[in-house]
Design brief:
The chain has 561 residues and is an alpha/beta fold. The strands form 6 sheets. Strands 2-1-3-13-4 form a 5-stranded mixed β-sheet. It has a 4-stranded mixed β-sheet with strand order 7-10-6-11. Strand 8 and strand 9 form a beta hairpin. It is globular, with a radius of gyration of 27 Å. The N terminus is likely disordered.
Length: 561
């Protein structure tokens, strides 16, 4: 009898165990994801890389399975809009939509308020989306007027103004400055110019003395004349972008309306008329200035660039052998107007992701708890330990050892996370600075603190040539004492969402206004428009809705916390 009972008990326990196992398997949460193919590597190929399995295991540890639908990149918006129209949106998707479309999704109840999901967080994501977390700036930018947060973006912690700390990557990567040929100055026994008049004089001297020896008067300053993000505009106190946030005053700035604009245009015309600025160069900091096909790259190879707006800590990839570019002073271009600088200011947010209101909030929380971890950040930045990176046992420093070239990835089946998925169907990692364990957190409260840090002395100062370090130190000292504008357009990086009324105002006015504003700048510099008619041109801007659009963007900034 006892034996029979014992056997029955064993069988019962076995059945219960199977039932519990089946129940646990059934309780795995699922989140459907819409993404698009990465350039050069298909989603099928991505899934053959070992790092992909590691990532899926991360989600599985949070009881989550991701169900991917991946389409061609050029079809993504079409497919996304079709799923929205059908009412069958994916649970998670990259919200490459207009501001009006985003607002309409919120108003129609089709998007999840992320805070509703964070109620199920294990504490990881709920902290990172709090006031003290790395996604706090995303909350500022993506909170709608009803108080709900329906989107979140890729976040980077950068330089802050005042007392907030800032990360090292923005300092090391975005130290933009005007640079001039020091070796040419030395050859002519000339000092580095400190006024705009001296700049013109030196540029003329370079041509007069045929410094590149080709018999042509082609030694010149290379600038982006179609925007204000060019360094010289900042000598005249101008913001680098239209409606840029002034961190000192809290105001949205429109360069054409700022003091110093008239003097800036006059100086640019002076450069053009003197033949030391070529309008045909079509230089842009963002258009691949280091490539052979770019105007700046071509001029570099011709040894014709006397001065340009570049990175103080790095030589131009195509500059001639023996050329030495030194940082120029922060020149005051107009009397009574202090020069400004472009740096990476504060947190910044780019891109945007959203969840359908039909998604399981527990699955959303599990997803966010995964991507907010240090492990996810390591996976994105370095990959898999022993496979794509090593950790120095003494210093604790991480060293990436694999290749980012797609052909190498496909051959070796090893890669870090970034080239596999980022911005195609998963967001970037928000963590920053954690991997420099030897140096501690890479955040400081001033440029001086940064220059005094072990990280600068032992990692940065030993990794670059002496003249580049000298340029960089000078740049940091300028940045310490100068008013700063954000290196990126604040409207896209930090400004809160529009209301529906504001979006309608922008939709009504912005296209024609932006077109005229752009044409006005170009025509003033090339001489088609007269400087004497500036007031009339400004009145035209107002007639096209400048004040209405300006007010909308100021209202956005006013809502920042």
């Amino acid at each position: 009898m006892k034996k029979t009972v014992a056997i029955a008990l064993v069988l019962l326990l076995a059945v219960c165990s199977l039932a519990i196992g089946a129940q646990a398997e059934e309780e795995m949460l699922t989140l459907s994801v819409l993404g698009h193919q990465r350039s050069g590597i298909t989603f099928e190929e991505v899934q053959t890389i070992h790092a992909w399995d590691v990532l899926m295991d991360m989600f599985a540890e949070n009881n989550l399975v991701l169900d991917f639908t991946v389409v061609e990149a050029d079809q993504y918006n079409t497919v996304l809009n079709a799923t929205i129209a059908s009412g069958d949106m994916p649970d998670f998707f990259k919200a490459s939509l207009s501001e009006t479309d985003k607002i309409n999704l919120i108003e129609s109840g089709q998007l999840m308020n992320i805070d509703d999901a964070l109620a199920y967080s294990d504490g990881t994501a709920s902290f990172e989306f709090s006031e003290d977390g790395l996604y706090s700036i995303s909350r500022q930018q993506n909170t709608y007027v009803d108080g709900g947060m329906y989107f979140f973006g890729n976040v980077s912690k950068q330089i802050a103004v005042d007392v907030e700390d800032f990360g090292s990557n923005a300092i090391v990567g975005n130290n933009c400055a005007m640079l001039m040929r020091q070796d040419w100055l030395d050859a002519l026994d000339l000092d580095m110019p400190t006024t705009t008049a001296e700049v013109l004089e030196v540029l003329r001297a370079f041509q007069d003395n045929d410094m590149n020896g080709n018999g042509l008067r082609d030694e010149r300053i290379c600038l982006d004349v179609d925007s204000y993000f060019n360094g010289v505009a900042q000598w005249f106190g101008l913001a680098p972008f239209v409606y840029q946030y002034n961190h000192s005053t809290g105001k949205a700035e429109v360069p054409v309306m700022q003091d110093g604009f008239d003097e800036y245009i006059a100086f640019m015309k002076e450069l053009v008329d003197a033949g030391v600025l070529f309008l045909g160069d079509e230089v842009s900091y963002y258009n691949g200035g280091t490539s052979e096909g770019s105007s700046l790259g071509a001029a570099m190879q011709e040894n014709s660039v006397a001065a340009y707006y570049g990175v103080a800590l790095a030589d131009h990839a195509l500059q001639p052998e023996g050329a030495v570019y030194a940082i120029m002073p922060n020149i005051q271009g107009a009397e009574g107007i202090a020069p400004v600088m472009n740096v990476s200011v504060g947190y910044k947010v780019w891109g945007g992701w959203a969840f359908s209101s039909a998604a399981n909030p527990e699955a959303v929380a599990a997803f966010l708890d995964t991507i907010c971890t240090k492990e996810y950040a390591i996976w994105v930045t370095f990959g898999v330990e022993g496979e794509t990176y090593t950790i120095d046992p003494e210093s604790g420093l991480y060293t990436f050892t694999a290749s980012n070239v797609v052909a190498d990835i496909l051959e070796t089946k090893v890669a870090r996370g970034y080239p596999l998925v980022i911005d195609s169907f998963l967001p970037d990692a928000s963590q920053i600075g954690w991997y420099q364990e030897y140096y501690g957190p890479l955040n400081w409260t001033s440029y001086s603190d940064f220059l005094d840090s072990a990280y600068f002395r032992e990692s940065i100062a030993t990794s670059y040539p002496e003249h580049q370090i000298a340029n960089f130190i000078t740049w940091c000292k300028y940045a310490e004492e100068t008013q700063k504008y954000n290196f990126n357009e604040d409207l896209g990086m930090i400004a809160p969402m529009n209301t529906l009324e504001e979006a309608d105002t922008l939709s009504f006015y912005e296209a024609d206004l932006d077109t005229y504003m752009s044409e006005m700048l170009s025509n003033l510099i090339n001489g088609t428009y007269s400087l004497e008619e500036l007031d009339a041109y400004r009145e035209t801007l107002y007639s096209l809705g400048l004040q209405e659009v300006w007010d909308v963007h100021q209202a956005q900034y006013d809502r920042m916390v």
